[in-house]
UniProtKB/TrEMBL annotation:
Cofactor(s) the record lists: a divalent metal cation
Keywords: Metal-binding
Gene Ontology terms for molecular function: hydrolase activity; metal ion binding
InterPro entries: Calcineurin-like_PHP_lpxH, Metallo-depent_PP-like, MPP_YfcE, Phosphodiesterase_MJ0936/Vps29
EC number of the protein: 3.1.4.-
Domain Calcineurin-like phosphoesterase intervals: 1-161
Protein name per Swiss-Prot or TrEMBL: Phosphoesterase
Superkingdom assignment: Bacteria
Pfam assignment, any one: Metallophos_2
Catalytic class of the enzyme: hydrolase
Family membership noted in the UniProt record: Belongs to the metallophosphoesterase superfamily. YfcE family.
CDD domains according to UniProt: MPP_YfcE
């Protein structure tokens, strides 16, 4: 099964459209969103084509294909307009023998881990900086930000297929890749 993973849309209709176009073409069966869907937050500039109502409409049309966790810019009022669950602090996935904890990253992160075991994967957004690294006995993955990337990175998302985690830009280039083992 192929999964697309994205974080930090922050209300950008432009990048949400780009993401969903790539999602449709990718053959991914599920879209995992790591929070900060609608609001840009007080520390960020407005993203390109800031239009949360358009983002709501676009994402709701994929409601049966989205798994989502709550970001620090997401609120209960967002659940009133989004037709898929958005308020969970983390989700746990068992994919191809991998145990993946998905979270936004503002609560659980490298400095404050969930109860993880050797070989587990922490998947998060929040920092807007793409990451694919080993940290002790676990792996930490961050697809970067769809709309407000930091650290000199382009806007990115990730694909997970056959234990390969690929961080991609919207031109289809692999920015970073990690084999998650056998």
């Amino acid at each position: 099964m192929k999964y697309m993973i994205a974080s930090d849309i922050h209300g950008s209709a432009y990048y949400c459209r780009e993401l969903l176009d790539v999602y449709k073409k990718s053959g991914a069966e599920r879209l995992i969103l790591l929070g900060d869907i609608l609001y840009h937050g007080p520390r960020n500039d407005l993203p390109k084509e800031y239009a949360p109502k358009e983002v709501i409409s676009m994402l709701n049309s994929y409601k049966d294909q989205i798994y989502n966790v709550r970001g620090n810019c997401d609120a209960e009022v967002d659940q009133m307009v989004l037709e898929f669950p958005v308020l969970s602090d983390y989700a746990l996935f068992a994919i191809n023998g991998l145990t993946i904890y998905a979270t936004h990253g503002h609560i659980y992160n490298k400095e404050n881990l969930l109860p993880m075991q050797k070989g587990d994967i922490l998947l998060h957004g929040h920092t807007h900086i793409l990451t694919a690294e080993t940290f002790g006995d676990i792996t930490i993955l961050n697809p970067g930000s769809v709309s407000i990337p930091k650290g000199g990175n382009p806007p990115t998302y990730a694909l997970l297929e056959d234990r390969i985690f690929r961080i991609m830009d919207f031109d289809g280039n692999i920015v970073k890749e990690m084999n998650l083992g056998e």
